[in-house]
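ok so for the tutorial part 2 we go from a plain amino acid sequence to predicted structure tokens. step 1 is just haveing the sequence, like this:
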Amino acid sequence: MTVHTIAGQLDAKGLKVAMVAARFNDFIVDRLISGALDYLERHGANREDITLVRVPGAFEMPLVCQKLAQSGRYNGVLALGAVIRGGTPHFDYVCAEATKGIAQAMLQAGTPIGFGLLTCDSIEQAIERAGAKAGNKGAEAAAAMLETVRVLEQL
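step 2 — the prediction. this is what the tokens look like for a chain of 155 residues:
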């Protein structure tokens, strides 16, 4: 018995992608942007087909992701940012609302949004996830978004 399998090919040729990147913690976010750009280009995307939108921080990302995803101009969107825990509960609120908002934006628009928002306990953890020991979560978000775009094309 054969199982019909639908899987996304990691081919970014011809795709229009928007990246929403927070300016807050930009020393980390810039590495996520670089990782995502490198990944997309190595998989066939043209730099001219990628739009970078900078927002103040993680809390502002969901609205901008939603507008871009609903615009019909992009096959996929990437949400890139870094929230690093401080001494107040602010971290918990920002992370929860940004995560929830980005998921809602994706579901409402029906456009894949790659989740590249780091939520770390320390600067060291953020550095590890932005291209050091733990890989580059910007590239991983680009891969997930790309694969989802290609799966949706087959449904």
